[in-house]
Write a structure and sequence with these properties.
- The structure is a single chain.
- The protein is an alpha/beta fold.
- It has three domains: 167 residues, Aspartate Aminotransferase, domain 1 (Alpha-Beta Complex), CATH 3.90.1150; 43 residues, Helix Hairpins, CATH 1.10.287.1970; 237 residues, Aspartate Aminotransferase, domain 2, CATH 3.40.640.10.
- 43% of the residues lie in helices and 12% in strands.
- It contains 17 helices and 14 strands.
- It has a seven-stranded mixed beta sheet, with helices on both faces. Strands 10-14-13 form a three-stranded antiparallel beta sheet.
- α8 links the parallel β3 and β4.
- α14 runs parallel beside α17.
- It is globular, with a radius of gyration of 24 Å.
- The structure holds pyridoxal-5'-phosphate (PLP).
């Protein structure tokens, strides 16, 4: 025995096979500000408070991440009942469970091998749920949708990754370039970093409510052609972190631009239920593209949806879908092959998606409660969005575009030169300095604008509008006091 150990230890070494020098360089450089240093420090402060360390506040308010349930949002009864029954089919005997919930649960279970959500699903998604997604899209857009174009994902992230994977190839000796808005949701920059793809940045116009302007797309693509091969354009609508909702005309112009430049469109439409401004309406890229007719209705498009946002906020369930249209059939076969090999969404996440795309209809037993709960969440989100923008716009040195949709505000802070000097002396960018001070002094965690990208020379931060009304009132009061004293200090 002793000999064995000696022999073993003399052959082994303490050297790691994987070191920071041999690590995938893409992993080293990728950044995801939403869970970056401010979020990490917020969790540390929470632990310090638990240990009894005194702070000028009693609680950390986590406004850095779009996680509705973490902020206290109550789950929608119908969704959770469907999940409960598919997980524990004995509940089918329970008279308290409404018949429409049971009907949906049975449909899902029948589509699962062995009548159990514990069996392996088809990696493209459970058939009956994919069919319900098809009906949802047809009802939303008024246009046909093919089952073959719809695949289910473990959240939008997996769908976005799976679609962007398709572009990871050099063309004419150049790396792929993907157009993406600035500010952007940093999942995109993280994927581009990981895969060494070029992010072609187009700036949204803050002075015109974060509008997406075609001359700016033209500028960005012309510049980029020198260094990469432009392949696709990502559009987030409603916007994260900017909260704007694109007009139909704007979407048409983007589709024309994509057609003229032979670009694939990735429409990130995860906030399609989150529209608060009565003058705004959500138009899917698919609907607009279909209604534009030839030749625009042939543009390749992936539209991405999630269970994490909207009125449901079921981030933990990891449900989502993509509708991918106009793909070359050979490419589509390869896309499906990659999904079969690399991805398989959880059936529970898919069942959650099912409850969203196949909600109770008028006349069904769950309809009234479902509608009441859904409307209550959306109305409250609209009120909170206004509370946030009104507060910011009443503060000296801050301007904030209206939150027309999604669940974030991205205000601009005009910091005094002394604050900028102080930040530089600490080796921090001004927005990081401001948000760090905010966190340390008030316990409010938001994300510095640099994590999403911002025009050089400007400073922003992103806050969610998700704290429940009472908490949000407290947060905004704490914020106001901090901001006023910060501005006075560095005047
Ligand atoms: C624009 C956008 N796309 C995608 C996602 C990822 O969503 P999921 O939780 O479904 O992966 C988010 C999450 O915040 C988002 O804001």
């Amino acid at each position: 025995m002793g000999t064995y150990y000696r022999t073993f230890s003399s052959k082994s070494s303490n050297k790691k096979s994987l070191t920071i020098d041999t690590l995938n360089p893409g992993i080293k450089i990728l950044e995801y500000a939403v869970r970056g240093p401010i979020a990490i420090r917020a969790s540390e402060i929470e632990k310090e408070l638990q240990k009894g360390i005194k702070k000028p506040f009693n609680e950390v308010i986590k406004a850095h991440i779009g996680d509705c349930h973490a902020m206290g949002q109550t789950p929608i009864t119908f969704i959770r009942q469907v999940l409960a029954v598919v997980s524990w089919p004995k509940l089918l005997d329970n008279p308290e469970i409404p018949s429409d919930v049971k009907f949906r649960a049975v449909e899902i279970l029948r589509s699962c091998a062995g009548y159990s959500i514990g069996s392996y699903p088809c990696p493209l998604g459970v058939d009956v749920i994919r069919n319900h997604v098809v009906c949802y899209i047809e009802k939303r857009d008024g246009h046909p949708c093919n089952l073959d174009d719809v695949v289910l994902h473990a959240g939008a992230k997996d769908g976005i990754q799976a679609v962007l994977d398709l572009f990871d190839a050099d063309v004419d000796g150049k790396r792929p370039g993907i157009m993406c808005s600035i500010p952007q949701y940093p999942l995109y920059s993280a994927i581009f970093s990981k895969q060494n793809m070029t992010m072609i940045k187009y700036y949204l116009n803050e002075d015109k409510n974060w509008s997406l302007e075609i001359p700016e797309l033209e500028r960005a693509i012309e510049d980029a052609k020198k260094t990469c091969y432009p392949r696709a354009i990502v559009v987030i609508n409603p916007g994260n972190p900017t909260g704007q909702v694109l007009t139909r005309e704007n979407i048409e112009a983007v589709i024309k631009f994509a057609y003229e430049n032979n670009l694939f469109i990735l429409a990130d439409e995860v906030y399609q239920h989150n529209i608060y401004d009565k003058n705004c309406k959500f138009f899917s890229f698919k609907k607009v593209l279909m209604e534009m007719g030839e030749p625009y209705n042939k543009v390749e498009l992936a539209s991405i949806m999630s269970t994490s946002k909207g009125y449901m906020g079921e981030c933990g369930m990891r449900g989502g879908y993509s509708e991918v249209i106009n793909l070359d059939p050979d490419v589509k076969a390869m896309f499906f092959k990659s999904l079969y090999a690399l991805y398989t969404p959880s059936v529970l996440g898919q069942a959650c998606l099912d409850a969203i795309v196949n909600p109770p209809e008028l006349g069904e037993p769950s309809y009234e409660l479902f509608s009441k709960e859904k409307e209550a969440v959306l109305q409250s989100l609209a009120i909170r969005a206004k509370m946030v923008t009104d507060t910011f716009n009443n503060l000296e040195g801050i301007s904030c575009n209206p939150v027309q949709g999604a669940m974030y505000a991205f205000p601009k802070i005009n910091l005094p030169p002394k604050a900028i000097e102080k930040a530089r002396s600490l080796g921090q960018s001004p927005d990081v300095f401001y948000t760090r001070q905010l966190l340390e002094e008030t316990g409010i965690s938001v994300v510095p604008g640099s994590g999403f990208g911002q025009k050089p020379g400007t400073n922003h931060f992103r806050t969610t509008t998700l704290p429940l009304p009472e908490k949000l009132t407290e947060m905004l009061q704490r914020f106001k006091e901090f901001h006023e004293s910060f501005m006075a200090k560095y005047k």
